[in-house]
């Protein structure tokens, strides 16, 4: 007969300590010696180029230093910046009108805006400036009246448009054509579904434009507009053929008298580098501003933030 001790379960065998977890495998990046060799070669070539520029006496760096902040050069730089700001601002104002016409359902407005953009993008800027500068030879008088009929008001074009006004008109008309396409592309980049959702919610047209279309379109507009700004800055140099005292024309007047062509051209080059660098930095931060909310991961750190983080890491190490 079985006793109570016989029916009790046998005690479980004694267990030792739990096994230690296996160490995690460390991921090691694949070595890429080819990239390091290419980087070393590129760095060597860049150092050779910089050394050749610095050590070349033909640049006459002492002359460059003397004329870099000269009054005539700074006056030319001021006019260059003024021309860039005025022509680009007016170009975007008129370009907005043209872009609206291109997006209109009216075929007449679409055709007229397309024709304007086609003409001014197809002809060289220098040719356009020369046409406007010689407007008196093309049209001795300008009138306002009925087409193919009588004119109500007429104005003689002799000495009507000076070199500076010619530069403003010519560059503004050119920038208008490019700005219209930039704005049109930005507007078309906005998802149509969001516009339909806004219409379903009963939002007004101006509110949709201000709160939905413009913030998203600016993400596509700002990079191209920044390139247009830098291009307009450099493009103002063509007005020197009209004897407009911009930066390039100012240095040309100096080297035509002193025959120091290379150092004076270097003065203009350095100023263009300085201004375009400042504009590029501004463009970078404007792009960051309109990129808010575009990614779930947030904005990447700025170069200054990365440099600060690297400095903190070095100090802590």
TrEMBL record:
Keywords: Amino-acid transport, Cell membrane, Membrane, Transmembrane, Transmembrane helix, Transport. Residues 77-283 form the ABC transmembrane type-1 domain. It is found in: Cell membrane. Residues 10-22 have a biased composition (Pro residues). The keyword Lipoprotein does not apply. Residues 1-24 are annotated as: Disordered. SUPFAM superfamilies: MetI-like. The keyword Hydrolase does not apply. It holds the Pfam family BPD_transp_1. The chain crosses the membrane at residues 36-54, 81-105, 126-148, 160-180, 228-249, 261-286. InterPro entries: AA_ABC_transptr_permease_3TM, ArtM/GltK/GlnP/TcyL/YhdX-like, MetI-like, MetI-like_sf. It is a multi-pass membrane protein. Belongs to the binding-protein-dependent transport system permease family. This is Amino acid ABC transporter permease.
């Amino acid at each position: 007969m079985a006793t109570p001790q016989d029916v009790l379960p046998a005690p479980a065998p004694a267990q030792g300590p739990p096994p230690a977890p296996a160490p995690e495998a460390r991921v090691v990046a694949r070595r890429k010696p080819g990239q390091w060799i290419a980087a070393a070669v590129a760095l060597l070539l860049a150092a050779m180029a910089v050394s050749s520029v610095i050590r070349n006496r033909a640049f006459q760096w002492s002359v460059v230093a003397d004329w870099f902040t000269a009054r005539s050069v700074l006056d030319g730089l001021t006019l260059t910046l003024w021309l860039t700001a005025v022509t680009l601002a007016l170009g975007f104002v008129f370009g907005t009108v043209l872009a609206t016409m291109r997006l209109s359902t009216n075929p007449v407005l679409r055709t007229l805006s397309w024709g304007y953009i086609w003409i001014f993008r197809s002809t060289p800027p220098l040719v356009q400036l020369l046409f406007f500068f010689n407007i008196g030879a093309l049209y001795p008088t300008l009138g306002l009246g009925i087409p193919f009929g009588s004119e109500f008001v007429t104005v003689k074009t002799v000495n009507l448009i000076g070199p500076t006004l010619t530069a403003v008109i010519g560059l503004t008309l050119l920038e208008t054509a490019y700005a219209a396409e930039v704005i049109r592309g930005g507007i078309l980049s906005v998802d149509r579904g969001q516009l339909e959702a806004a219409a379903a919610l009963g939002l007004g047209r101006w509110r949709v434009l201000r709160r939905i279309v413009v913030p998203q379109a600016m993400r596509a507009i700002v990079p191209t507009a920044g390139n247009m700004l830098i291009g307009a800055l450099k493009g103002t140099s063509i007005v020197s053929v009209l004897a407009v005292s911009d930066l390039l024309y100012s240095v040309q007047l100096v080297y035509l008298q002193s025959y120091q062509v290379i150092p004076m051209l270097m003065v203009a080059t350095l100023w263009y580098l300085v201004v375009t660098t400042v504009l590029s930095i501004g463009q970078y931060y404007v792009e960051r501003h309109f990129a808010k909310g575009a990614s779930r991961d947030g904005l990447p750190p700025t170069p200054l933030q990365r440099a600060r983080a690297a400095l903190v890491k070095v100090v802590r190490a």
